[in-house]
Amino acid sequence: MAAAQAQQQQSTSRGPIPRILRVGVILGGNIIEERLMRKRETITIGQSAKNTFSIPIEGLPMHWPIFSMENGRYYLLFTDNMDGRISDGSGVHTLDSLRGREAQQRGDGFVVPLAETARGKIVVGEMTLLFQFVSAPPLQPRPRLPAAVRGTLADRVDPHLAIVMGIS
Asked: What pLDDT digit, counting tens, does each position of 29-54 carry?
């Protein structure tokens, strides 16, 4: 508890805490994975096990960078076979409407910058990906046993083995 408060005081003294990306994957109506992405890095989806989210469905490429980190800002990359909508705080936009106006074409897909208030839903076949930016919860300290339960080094040594080792 004290470590979490110290971390919070340090982060507030350095400036505003950056919001982190929270991503959930729904497959067949069930949430199969949800993660808080504390590291600000590119997030990939696809059928390969090397992706951030490995999802074995048809229509999904082997490797696709769904959220790209460029210059300290996230960008959403989507293709023509993806459907969904994004809310940036000022309004809700469908991916179809973004393809026509705000999205820039890059390779096989389209790119849209995401604000720190953005949230949305991306659908590819039977997979739904939900995302939103949230304030990072404090890290939980590693659980430790009380000192009375842990014991000392002398408690861990078997006396019979110690006698045999000492004699030999």
From this structure: 899 999 999 998 999 999 889 999 99
